[in-house]
Amino acid sequence: MSALNIKKGSSSHSAYDLRDSHVQLEESHTLAVIVENEPGVLARVIGLFSGRGYNIDSLTVAEVDHTGHRSRITIVTRGTPAVIDQIEAQLRRMVPVYDVHDLTAEGPAVQRELALLKVAGTGAARVEALQLAEIFRANVVDSTLESFVFEMTGTPEKIDAFADLMRPLGLAEIARTGVAALSRGA
Amino acid sequence: MSKQMTGAKMVIEALKEQGVEVVFGYPGGAVLPIYDEIFQQNDIRHILVRHEQGAVHMAEGYARSTGKPGVVLVTSGPGATNAVTGLTDALMDSIPLVVLTGQVPTFMIGTDGFQEADTVGITRPCTKMNWLVKDTAKLSETIHQAFHVATHGRPGPVLIDIPKDVQFATADYTPADKIKPTHYQPRTEGDPAQIARLVELMEKAERPILYTGGGVVNSGPRASQLLRELAAETNFPVTSTLMGLGSYPASGKNWLGMLGMHGLYEANLAMHGCDVMINIGARFDDRITGRIKDFSPNSRKAHIDIDPSSINKVIPVEVPIVGDVTKVLEEVLRQWRARGSRTRADGVAKWWKQIGEWRAVKCLSYKPSTTTIKPQYALERLEALTRGMDRYICTEVGQHQMWAAQYLNFEDPNRWMTSGGLGTMGYGLPASIGVQIAHPEALVINVAGEASWLMNMQEMGTAVQFRAPAKQFILNNERLGMVRQWQELLHGERYSSSWSESLPDFVKLAEAFGCKGIQCKDPKDLDDAIMEMLRYDGPVIFDCLVEKHENCFPMIPSGKPHNEMLLGDADTQGVIGAKGAVLV
């Protein structure tokens, strides 16, 4: 038997250093989860993530098949490859889940997000905001003499970049939908 | 063609169609229509419990001892919330249950009505699936689907919340064979290519071990039969988790005993030292693995599990096989026999020699006493005096549970009902009643600790009312024994709140309930007292006063690997470090 000579009755502080030291790097993955559109299904999926300590960076959901009552939930999550596999397995075994696609692992995928940005200002800042919006192919969907609302669609990174540029020009409010994604090709 | 009926009647019709014979439940305002229907029929027997938690544990005992789903009926609000512990217990241990809860009428949902609770919201994380039925036309279909979900794939508890107006309203009844097919059809056949890889591992193994779990029991009696064939033909040693006891007989020559935190020395060292580990329906629980990094470091591992999320969750395996144990073992045996039933017999013989050396340590030996009853001795005598009987054992949770697993022998599956995953104190008494209701002629014993037993002792009323002669064998050390043991080993012998100063007189308690009480404190009287308990035709509360400071060994301290087991008190000096102490 081992003699560890740790003082009897010593108390403890943290369990974290007991974890496996073979630390794997976290990756971002986009998952498409096809579910039966029944009451509570979104709570069920989100509850899985919170209950098991997984991350949600972005989440979108809408019914995509009105006759078959199927919804598509697109989740952007982060984790080590083992955690991502576990998330997929946990999702797959849920009763109202029809299918799960790891779009990041399955090959190239198109990711798009829609954002609405309200930029308030006058004078040179206002003109510059409009010029930058043209470069970013953002549409003006509302305008007053002191403000624009821009609508833009793109990858989350593109929206981040546009928002960063708008911030000094009077960005007042931003609304984002979260990512929708499809695999490329047939 | 189709029959019109009320929702309440539909519940009874659907349960009958599903072959339900017994419902465990407790009435209340929101389920009165269903209770009215129960009153007007004789096919389904209703067991009135004393607390809804008891109903769920009874249904668990019923389910685990029969292989059929257990059914529970409770009211809204507190009825449903009281069921939550049992639901979580059943989810952790993969027990099929169908729980029906009443709900306030649909038009009152969300108004904080009397006895309203968000039952589907509260039970979503502790059920395999749940439904709120808002339309009587969908009720029968939902019940049939619920039975399908509870019993297919990895079994588990499901819940149907039925508002009172849905019970009163009338609609067409949909028979089970007329419902639209559900997409929930989990895979049961293992991949033949993966099974071929397992067979190759078996042929090469020199230090193999079959690590079996509750999945073998859940898969049905055929799975246990196949496991026995596999062990007999390969001569591989067999160990089992707490949940899997009985799937391989304790009298079988390949049996190593239970593994894990309080498992046998030979079983744990064989797990640590094996070169091929074949996990059959177990889940690498933390009570089994100890420190993950040092878990069975030199073995190639295969894992058979019906739940894909169990595979690679904790321990990465080389050969993953998703499927039902029965079907997978059939294919394993078929392929292995077709290839000539080869094993490395020489290597395996050497392995058995090594195991024999570990066995010679006799890890279950303890210091006997002629003056006080040692808990281990009490269980040895119980085992000896009930051997060969048609016997079912339940337990509560704690030291007595581990001793029962160590000192009682299980020859068949479905004979051992214990709360493994959740560790629910208060499980055993109601579970033993559920088992006894399912097997009225059998001997059912709940091996208990006095602290656990008190948690649901109100169910003695149920046992007496329904003439369930389950024997309550209480190892009374006037302590929360496992808590006390950990405080001794980890917390400087500061026994914070781990003893009870005002325990009831269990003999008088038995009399108050209208059953028999027996107290025994002298080892010389124990055999006679046990025989008196066994002979009594009715429920018995047996107050067995045992040694108060006995520790449960062997023990793998938290955060330690299998090869750092403690065998007895002499090994315990300062052995659990600060890091281990944070683990439970």
Task: Please outline what is shown here.
By secondary structure, chain A is α+β, with helices and mostly antiparallel strands.
Structure explained in plain terms:
The complex is a heterodimer of chains A (186) and B (584). Chain A has helices spanning 41-51, 81-92, 124-135, 156-166, and strands at 27-36, 58-65, 70-79, 97-102, 109-120, 139-143, 147-154, 171-183. By secondary structure, chain A is of the alpha+beta class. In chain A, the strands form two sheets. In chain A, strands 2-3-1-4 form a four-stranded antiparallel sheet. In chain A, strands 6-7-5-8 form a four-stranded antiparallel sheet. Residues 1-19 of chain A have low confidence and may be disordered. Chain B has 584 residues and is of the alpha/beta class. Chain B is globular, with a radius of gyration of 24 Å. In chain B, helix 1 (7-17) packs parallel to helix 7 and helix 9 (192-204) crosses helix 14 (325-338). In chain B, the strands form four sheets. Chain B has a six-stranded parallel sheet with strand order 3-2-4-5-7-6. In chain B, strands 11-10-9-12-13-14 form a six-stranded parallel sheet, sandwiched between helices. Chain B has 24 helices and 20 strands. Chains A and B meet through helix 1 and helix 2 of A and strand 6 and helix 24 of B.
Tags for this model:
A: 186 residues; alpha+beta; disordered N terminus; B: 6-stranded parallel β-sheet; 16% strand
In terms of quaternary structure, what is this? heterodimer
Distance, first to last CA of chain B: 58 Å
Number of E strands of chain A: 8
Query: What percentage of residues of chain A falls in helices of 4 or more residues?
Result: 10-25%
* Largest Cβ-defined interface: A-B, 36 and 47 residues
